[in-house]
Amino acid sequence: MFEGICNNDSIFATWLKSLIDQGIISRTGLADPKLVDYKSEIYPYSINRIGEDTLAIAKILDRRFLLVVGPNRIKFKGENLNFGGIGISICALSHFNANKLRKYFRFTSPSVLSNNNVKVTIGLGDRLGLAGPGHIRAVRNSNVTPILAQQSLRELNLTKRTYHSTIDSATWSVFQENFRSPWAADGDHLKTENSVVEALKCGCTMITADLSDFIHPEFCNMEKHILFQEYEKCDSVYRAIAEEKYLNLKLIFNNNETIGFSKEELARVILTYKDAVDHATRLFKSGKSTKREFDFEISIDEIETPTSPQAHIYVAMEAKRNDISYTSIAPRFVGEFQKGIDYIGDIDDFRNSFKIHASIARAFGYRISVHSGSDKFSVFQSIGELTEGVFHIKTSGTSWLQAMKTISEVEPDFYRKLHKAALEAFPTASQYYKVTPDFENLTEIDYINNENLSSIFDNPDDRRVLHIAYGEILNNKELKIKFFEILEKNVEHYWISIENHIRRHLELLCI
Ligand code: ZN
User: Distance between CA 429 and CA 437 in Å, rounded?
Assistant: First the structure.
């Protein structure tokens, strides 16, 4: 990839010579990080040693790569140079090199978080593979543990990426920032046994089991006498065990709130959720046959009907009965958690219902998980407070929106093209995501000047349209090439905007 790039009068050669002249590169490797500033195009935090070799991430010609200086330089694949007796290798941030790096530096591998007694974890999906350093800078001095690689199959298909590439991006970011705290990789919203196996084989340390195809919401509101007819069709042995267990159950939460099951409630949750728990069991077992340890999240959020406290308790208890060791459960909360915008619904209703879900999770000893959690500023305080600071929250497309915003600030004319493409993409993109923007309220981009262009990102209706358009935009080859060119060139600007945006989340979540 870098072969031949370093002939004597190339920009690379000039750059390397200047580093040697300044004493940043010498026979003993790279200088102390304190002496290296960003003007040298080397990320100072990334300077690390393997034996006599020094490694660092550098950026030149808007490309980041691994620089290895020292006598051995045999460990990574790249262009090997000899500069006045100093051995230097220029290596691509490739999968091969990421694998090597993970072997030498344990902290560049994701880890299983349940072993680390974590309290707050945040899923920071990075659809573009460029957001990592911004994410790390946002959480670095907090007690938040990041899931730096988190992609659903839907996202991987739309961006034509793989679990390998999402984990590699996180590995390089962690190395660049010398982030030595635990971090994780989530195979998000997986529905099949094959996808669980594949994600774990590629290095994911967490699985989010999406049970939505096995939940039967039609039973939630079914007329009572039809409901009982259906219930009678269920296996009689199972019914007897469940009735014995749940009809006598009285759980007290928050000092005074008692939750029990009437026979009708029990029939409803069994008919609605039993298949889902059985599927979770299959997914968990297939994971266990692949890897000894991983974090496992049970996700029942992607349906229309909010999860009742009884349903939550039933899923939690049945999953335990089936020997699933899970670390979090994501219920469907009241109101709407649409992508990339604030919570829609009554905030008091949310507080009241969230309080009980948070208490159930605390009582059973796992973290409550909030999906589509980016930009839910009006409920963050409730989430932080009612969980007593123990929860998982997922954000994903918000770093994509920050990328679009960055482009609107640095290349407004090109942004206009992206914006129009996003509008055209809506009919296709909205097949994958439930968002309901008010089309009457979208910004007329032709009537807004360049200086005010980024104000588009203050409009929740525009945000929803832009949020889901990533697949269509990135599948347009011409747009994609220019998009990445601009973003790589302005990547520091992008990282600052991500860092600030995620920090705003953390502040309101009381972290
Ligand atoms: Zn979800």
Answer: 13
CA of 307 to the centre of ligand 1 (A): 13
pTM of the model: 0.94
Name every residue whose Cβ is closer than 8 Å to that of residue 265 and which is 6 or more positions away in sequence. Answer: 308, 310
Instruction: Show the CA angle centred on residue 408, arms to residues 403 and 411, nearest 5°.
Output: 105
pLDDT on residue 183: 98
Q: Ligand 1 centroid vs 172 CA: distance in angstroms? A: 27
pLDDT tens-place string over residues 458-482: 999 999 999 999 999 999 999 999 9
Nearest CA-CA partner of 367 in 336, 399, 394, 346: 394
Instruction: Name the H helices within 203-336.
Output: 224-232, 236-246, 263-288, 309-321
What share of the chain has pLDDT > 90, as a percent? 79
For the question of residue 461 being annotated catalytic, the response is no
CB 162 within 8 A of CB 177: no
Spell out the residues 6+ positions from residue 38 whose beta carbon is closer than 8 angstroms to its own. 44
Ligand 1 centroid–CA 345 distance in Å is: 18
Provide the b/e sequence for 319-358 (b: ≥16 CB within 10 Å): beeeebebbbbbbbbbbebbbbbebeeeeeebbebbbbbb
Report the alpha-carbon distance of residue 473 to residue 126 in Å, rounded: 16
Find the 325 Cα to ligand 1 centroid distance in Å. Answer: 19
41, 53, 188, 409: the active-site residue: 188
Q: Is 188 a catalytic residue?
A: yes
Which of 168, 265, 297, 409 is flagged as catalytic? 297
pLDDT surpassing 60 at residue 12 = yes
Tokens representing residue 311 in the block: 């349903």
Cα-to-centroid distance, 55 and ligand 1 (Å): 39
Residue with tokens 């529905």: 191
Residues 6+ apart with CB under 8 A from 389: 119, 120, 510, 511
**C-alpha angle 265-356-118 in degrees, rounded to nearest 5:** 125
Nearest alpha-carbon partner for 206 in 277, 148, 128, 126: 148
Please say if the pLDDT value at position 4 is more than 80. Answer: no
Centre of ligand 1 from the C-alpha of residue 430, in Å: 16
Rounded CA separation 323/339 (Å):
33
CA 201 vs CA 35, 49, 88, 108: distances in Å: 41, 29, 34, 17
Distance of alpha carbon 30 from its chain centroid, rounded? 34
Ligand 1 centroid to residue 372 C-alpha, Å: 6
